[in-house]
Every structure is written in C-alpha cells, then in structure tokens.
Amino acid sequence: MDVVVTGIGLVSALGPLDCSWKRLLAGESGIRQHQPFLELERQPLALIGTKPVDLITLIRQVLADAVQDANLTLPLPDCGIAIGSSRGFQANLELLASEGSSATSVVQDVTDVKDRRKKEEGRRKREEGRRKREEGRGKKEEEREFSVTYSQCPMPHAQCPMPHAQCPMPNAPCPMPNSQFVNFLPHMGAIAAARAIGSTGPVLAPMAACATGLQSIARAVDLIRTGECQRAIAGAVEAPITPLTLAGFSRMGALANTGCYPFDENREGFVLGEGGALFVLESAELARRRGAKIYGRVSGFGLTNDACHANAPDLGGESAIAAVNQCLKRSNLAAIDIDFIHAHGTATELNDRHEALLIEKLFHRGVAVSSTKGATGHTLGASGALGVAFCLMSIKYQMLPPCAGMKKPGFELDFVRCARSAIVRNAVCLSFGFGGQNAAIVLSAER
C-alpha cells in the first residue's frame, strides 16, 4: 500500500515552511549568538523567537499548519497520531525542580507546605470539636499541592489549572495539584495533538534520540499499512534549549563556539535549535479519492540500533549500513536510484566522519549530499522530521538546498554548495542518534 504526504507543518529558526525553504535556498542561517539564561555565557543558538519556545505552543502551531495545508476539517476522530520528542517537557520539569534551588530544596519546600497544612487543619478541627475532627480524619489527604517559588507560574496557560489572571498570588508560590504533574509525562505532547484534532485513534509517542522524527513517521506508515487507520499525523517537535541541556552538551564538548559547519574541515560541533515538522500521511487511495495534493510518498524506511555506545556511533558502521540497506530494499530501489541525500550532518567530528564513510560506501559517487543543520541548528529529535520536509520540498520544486555553513569540505562527496536545480525522484533522509539509533527513510515523487 502506498502512503503519501498530503500536508506539511514546519517551524524552524528560519520561520514556517515556505519561509524556511526560501531562506534555506538563499543560504541564510537562523543561528545567532544568544543566551536566554543569565547564568550561562552567550553561544550560538537557533531560536525561533527571542526566548525559548514552549513545547505545547510549538506542537499546536505546527499541527494547525499541517492540517490546514492538507485541506482537512476538524474533528478528525479516526486519525492516528505518532508525534515524538526526545527532550519532551524537560524545560517545564527543570523549572519545577529548581529556580535557583536544588531538587532537595524543592522536596523540602513540598514537605514544609504539607507540615503547615497539617498544623492548620489540626487547629481547625480542635475548634470544631471532637465530632467534626473525627469526621475530618478521612479527608486530610483529599488534596496535596506542590509549591515551588517562582517569579511567575511555570506552567503554560493552556495547561495551568488556574487562569493566571485570576491567580490571587501571581508572583507567589504557584500551587499545582498532583494530577497536573502528569501533563509533563513524555507522551503528553502527542496526547495534546490528539485532543486538538479530536482524535480517538491510536496515539504513539516515539523517543529515539535524534532518530525520533524518522521513527515517528515509520510508525505512522505502519499504522496505515496495517489498516489501523487510513490517515495519521506524524513527525517530531523539539523545544530543547534549557539550562540542563546546554550545560550537559557543553560538558560533553559537543557544542560549537561560533556556528554549525556540517562536513566542513574545520567543523566545531553542533548548535542547538528549536523546531518541528508534522506530516499528514494518508493511504494513496484516500488522498486521491478526496482530491488532495500530494507532496510525495514514503517509499520505505530502515531502523536499527548499534547496541554499542551511549554517545558515539559504532565505527564499524554495520548497523547503520543495515538500516540504509533495509530502507532501500523496502523501497524496491537500488542505491543508484537515489538522487539526493539529506544527511544527518551534525558537524561533530565523529558523526560527520562516520556518516561520510557510510555514504561513500553505499551510494554512487555523484549523488548530491546536503545537511541543513547549519541553517536550522540541531533540533535533536525533530531534526529528521525537518529533513523529511526539506526532501519533500526538493521533490516538489526540483531544487536542492545547500549544505549551510560549509566553507571547506572535509570529505570527497558531492556536497550541494549553493542551491541548484536537479531532477529529484527519490530522496533519502538519514538520522543517527545517541545510543546508536540509526534511521533512514526514502521519499519519492508520486507514481
């Protein structure tokens, strides 16, 4: 069964889909020197706005664009969902854990509040008399609250149980019922998307590090091919710019000092970026029946794992090679049939060398290669989804986006140095993630 793409929603540091594509072809970059956190030094970041974006806000924006682009009307009760995020609600959880205090002090704050409440409850019961005190014993656990001091409520307006404007103490400790904590579980972004479109179909929330976007699309294709649904919305969204994420990658030595230069001889490391891309996937039969425009089809995918190292690829490359070969086989294509490779291209020393060797080994010498992370930054789990969108735009416009940030190629591949026209029938997008996650997907022009 053919599965086709009928709608794309994308937001990156370059802007929404059409703006991102035009700026990408023009060789522009959304990377700037920023630092939204006072305790950290300025560094290159690819922010969508002037401050870190909220995950739910980003999901809703990209989702709305995808649905509108596909010319669909809500609700979509039978639509499947496969939306991933490798970092999830980490920004919200970091705020809950600490704003200038350790996790231990947060726990102590919770304990102190509970102790005060118990004392107040005891006094009230004594005043009401023995009978009411006995009746009230079974209710003293009826509601407990976390209370952490913030300059403002840490929760997005859409999730907060109390409208901010109605809060009697907007700059005081923000009460959050225990039940509200579940809104920050990793899969709740996908659940929010399902609610937004009125779907009661299957909801998946893959997490596969930087391969999350491709894993999500693959799972959605499976949902359609196995008959669980005829339509699904899939992709990944990431809001990864948080103090812990920046500090962690900095300690690893993975971050660049000046910019992102994939496959360049003088590459420095990656630059964190915000963004996401979601796709409306449909069976070709459904799409044609409703007269939908079609960007292309998902011909096949391959997914493997190195089972080797937490943050380095298996230098032998066997599992990564297997993922690409699996992808080509499922697509009924040979390597010579691929016209364009959207590489993972993080601009780290090890990843780029590993990926360049893989491309040299598996594909013909003249295949065009590009990485767009020099323009969008590395959006982690969403990076593969952005890559798929750019592959589909390449097929639609028969144009290849440049390898942004490249000054002096470090490998002998046919890198796209400037935007150029080309015949693009089949494009492959590659993603490689921490833990040894390998993913490849082929996008093809409509038959």
From TrEMBL:
Keywords: Acyltransferase, Transferase. GO terms for biological process: fatty acid biosynthetic process. It is an enzyme of class 2 (transferase). Residues 111-144 have a biased composition (Basic and acidic residues). InterPro entries: Beta-ketoacyl_synthase, Ketoacyl_synth_AS, Ketoacyl_synth_C, Ketoacyl_synth_N, PKS_Beta-ketoAc_synthase_dom, Thiolase-like. Residues 106-144 are annotated as: Disordered. Belongs to the thiolase-like superfamily. Beta-ketoacyl-ACP synthases family. Its EC number is 2.3.1.41. Residues 1-445 form the Ketosynthase family 3 (KS3) domain. GO terms for molecular function: 3-oxoacyl-[acyl-carrier-protein] synthase activity. This is Beta-ketoacyl-acyl-carrier-protein synthase I. PANTHER family: BETA KETOACYL-ACYL CARRIER PROTEIN SYNTHASE, POLYKETIDE SYNTHASE-RELATED.
